[in-house]
Specification:
alpha/beta; two-stranded antiparallel sheet; 13 strands; 8-stranded parallel beta barrel
Length: 310
């Protein structure tokens, strides 16, 4: 697989006002990040669709996207229409991220049935098929187990042809669907338990990541070289005491300090060390699109300045 150039994103969703959110988006753009990606949960965060549009309005080149929308929260026709509208109004800057849904507390809060992973993934697969057909030219028809679309023309049509589809997941079935259908694959922890705990965290290690990429490669076939592989870094610490910081963080991951330093979901060290680690991980895994989770993106700006576009 030929190495892609590095891109960087910020996964963020908090803003107490229009001005604060717009300023955050402009700062992310100014620091050289490619994208602002927004999760989709019912806890204390901005709603993805209006937040993406506000961020796009506040910037000129920053891409906006979701990491990731839960397929179960809206009918796929609604997802497609809202996403295409954002692509049009942003001038073609949308990255459309979709997943099968995982966080049990969201479903409990909304009174949505928390079906088995197999059912949620099957529904997600149908939803993704419908959304892609509504983005495309021509009328869409679909008759599945969960959804039906009857001779419907998806409008507006997106500016990008095609809109980049990002699928996030950590299990074999979702990653295999992503390998066949997506343009960008966000390799995540295995979240089938519906909560983040030590068992979940242990699925984010180096060996697990290699296994996940093996699943993607097998399912993608000839598509593999055209895929952009991504990972979200949930713990990023710029420090001159790499070993000491790894020692402090390791219990939260349920890993040894060495395993934490090897996990694609963590970055610990000086700017030089982090740059070296990201280059080594790209060589090892083919991962070139790095999303930093949370509002600590400014301290990673020197890394972005060194690697973005290289």
């Amino acid at each position: 697989m030929a190495h892609r150039k590095f891109r960087f994103a910020v996964q963020a969703s908090s803003g107490r006002s229009r001005e604060e959110w717009a300023e955050k988006a402009r700062k992310i753009e100014g620091l050289g990040y490619s994208s602002l990606l927004i999760p989709d949960h019912f806890d204390d965060q901005l709603a993805p669709m209006p937040a993406m549009m506000a961020a796009a309005d506040a910037t000129t080149t920053l891409r906006v996207g979701t990491l990731v929308l839960d397929n179960d929260y809206k009918h796929p026709l609604v997802h497609a229409k809202e996403a295409a509208t954002i692509d049009v109004l942003s001038g073609g800057r949308l990255e459309f991220g979709l997943g099968a849904g995982w966080m049990r507390t969201d479903y409990d809060a909304a009174g949505i049935a928390y079906d088995s992973p197999g059912v949620r993934i099957s529904r997600f697969k149908e939803g993704l098929t419908i959304i892609k057909s509504l983005f495309a030219d021509g009328r869409a028809n679909f008759s599945g187990t969960y959804y039906t679309i009857v001779d419907h023309e998806g409008t507006p049509k997106p500016v990008q042809k095609p809109i980049p589809i990002l699928v996030g997941g950590g299990g074999k079935r979702v990653l295999s669907i992503a390998a066949r259908e997506a343009n960008i694959i966000s390799i995540n922890f295995n979240l089938e338990q519906g909560v983040v705990n030590r068992t979940t965290m242990q699925t984010g290690g180096a060996a697990s990541t290699e296994e996940k990429i093996g699943w993607i490669r097998a399912a993608a076939g000839a598509r593999f070289d055209g895929l952009e592989l991504s990972v979200t870094v949930f713990v990023a610490v710029v420090t001159d005491d790499q070993a000491g910081m790894a020692e402090r963080i390791a219990p939260g991951f349920g890993m040894s300090p060495a395993e934490v330093l090897d996990s694609p979901h963590a970055l610990i060290g000086s700017v030089d060390q982090i740059v070296d680690v990201l280059q080594a991980r790209r060589e090892r895994y083919g991962i070139s699109y790095i999303a930093f989770s949370g509002d600590g993106f400014e301290r990673l700006a020197p890394v972005v300045a060194r690697l973005a576009g290289t």
